[in-house]
Amino acid sequence: MGELSHLDAEGRARMVDVSDKPVTAREAVAEGYVRMAEATRALALSGAGKKGEVLATAELAGVMAAKRTAELIPLCHPLPLSSIKVAVAAAEGGLRVEARVKTTAQTGVEMEALTAASVACLTLFDMLKAADKTMVIDGLRVIGKSGGRSGDWTA
Predict the structure, then answer these.
(1) How many H helices and E strands in the chain?
(2) Buried b / exposed e across 60-70, counting CB within 10 Å, b at 16+?
(3) How far is the C-alpha of 109 from the C-alpha of 134, rounded, in Å?
(4) Where are the beta strands (DSSP E) in the chain?
(5) How far apart, in Å, are the Cα atoms of 12 and each of 5, 6, 16, 78, 142?
(6) Reported pTM
(7) Structural contact between residues 57 and 123, judged by C-beta atoms closer than 8 angstroms
(8) Given a cut of 80, is residue 7 above it in pLDDT?
(9) CA–CA separation, 113 vs 101, rounded Å?
């Protein structure tokens, strides 16, 4: 393991200086799950939730969140995002969220993808909590990235 890039020599938090890094195309994909009862999943997939169309609302919330990442995570660089795609789909035991974010910049978009997936999961939870108090948000992680000095990576 290397040094933590967000700490200076004295151990103080700092924003990483990326001014000398080349601008390259970058992409990151993150996923998360909301585990729930089968009846709750069926309700979400039906589009008949009391708060409206659950999946589309969660997907839109994820897109909106990715655009606000630098405001939420103190040391993140604000990035010009060129594409944000959030998809919610049925999965065993609940719903799976996948967030795919692209930019052409000097630093990666892993945090934007994680933020999109996180907020989409939170939105699903919010919209379905009246139907299922036992839901669990689970498995939030980056599953792939491309671009930049460290190159491509897949979980």
Answers:
(1) 4, 5
(2) ebbbbbbbebb
(3) 32
(4) 24-35, 81-91, 94-105, 136-146, 153-154
(5) 11, 8, 12, 21, 26
(6) 0.91
(7) yes
(8) no
(9) 6
Task: Give the separation between CA 5 and CA 8, rounded to whole angstroms.
Answer: 8
Q: Which spans in 50-96 are helix H?
A: 54-66, 69-72
Q: Position of tokens 């393991």? A: 1
- What's the start-to-end Cα distance of the chain, in Å? 17
pLDDT in tens, 41-72: 999 999 876 767 999 999 999 999 999 999 99
> Please, which residues have CB within 8 angstroms of residue 92's CB and are 6 or more apart in sequence?
none
One-letter amino acid for residue 110 of the chain: E
Q: How far apart are the C-alpha atoms of 117 and 97, rounded to whole Å?
A: 6
Integer Cα distance of 69 and 141 in angstroms: 16
Please report, for residues 7, 15, 31, 141, the alpha-carbon distance to residue 3 in angstroms, rounded to integers and kept in the order given.
8, 14, 26, 21
Q: Which two tokens stand for residue 90?
A: 């049925």
Closest listed residue to residue 53, CA positions, set 67, 62, 43 = 43
Q: Which residues are designated catalytic?
A: 126
Name the average pLDDT for the chain.
92
